[in-house]
Amino acid sequence: MDTGSPRGTQSVARAALLMRLVTAQGERGGARMTYLVAESGLTRPTAHRLLTALKAEALVDQDPVTGRWFPGPELFLMGTVAAERYDVAERSRDIVHALALETEESAFFSMRRGDETVCLVHEDGAFPIRSHVLSEGVRFPLGVASAGLVILALLPAAESDAYLARTGDSLAGRWGQAHGSAPLRTRIAETRDRGYSVNPGLIVEGSWGMGAAVLSKSGRPDWALSITGVEFRFDAARRAELGRALLAHAHELSRRMR
């Protein structure tokens, strides 16, 4: 730890990480302790101690039967207050709905948070076979999912280069060799040329994704619209059609955000 950091900073950071992990699993039947330990890198006793403290403050909750962890009621109350200032999700819901309706694929709105994207809004399309890679609260590092790839590609070159230097090939260790620095740079260049990103089943085999950036008033790619679906729905001709739809809806939402 940085010796100049306030006392207790490490504990706060660890507790915040556990809350993010619990929240990301909230719609997936809750978070198992084995998952929280593996994802956080904490020892089981440390994770349990922090979760118990968070539960006492109602920031997380535990199912007494399954033992799984869920976001607590206090998080809901805090979120309700914070939403008055930060709730960009509500501004996107009708556009996400329209995108799902037009493409018949699952549609999403994600926000950049540091080196990650977090999904804020999700709506299933009409096509009965769906990809279940993404849902509200799920986070991915920049460059992994289609939303994070298009955001990374449209950042100023100095920022994207700094991110790639910072992560090196660490993404490949978790997400596979296709997420190494060299192939990721290739996908970034392709995304810049097209204007939208394509993820050809690199997270889950057979589950494709595409994304388009939503720009802030200053022109920064702070958010993204994306769609996911099964591979046979994403042939070259249809990808071009879906890309046009994504860009049109992203442009409309960018105007709204400004």
Summarize the topology.
Blueprint (H helix, E strand, L loop, with lengths): L8 H16 L8 H8 L3 H13 L3 E3 L6 E3 L1 H14 L2 H15 L2 E8 L2 E8 L15 E3 L4 H9 L2 H11 L2 H6 L5 H14 L2 E3 L7 E9 L5 E10 L5 H22 L1
Antiparallel strand pairs: 1-2, 3-4, 3-8, 4-5, 6-7, 7-8
Helix pairs in contact: 1-3, 5-10, 6-9
How would you characterize this protein structure?
- With 258 residues, the protein is an alpha+beta fold.
- It folds into two domains: 9-80, Winged helix-like DNA-binding domain superfamily/Winged helix DNA-binding domain (Arc Repressor Mutant, subunit A), CATH 1.10.10; 88-257, Beta-Lactamase, CATH 3.30.450.40.
- It is built from ten helices and eight strands.
- It has helices at 9-24, 33-40, 44-56, 73-86, 89-103, 146-154, 157-167, 170-175, 181-194, 236-257, and strands at residues 60-62, 69-71, 106-113, 116-123, 139-141, 197-199, 207-215, 221-230.
- The strands form two sheets. Strands 5-4-3-8-7-6 form a six-stranded antiparallel beta sheet, sandwiched between helices.
- The protein is globular, with a radius of gyration of 19 Å.
- The N and C termini lie far apart (39 Å).
- 36% of the residues are buried.
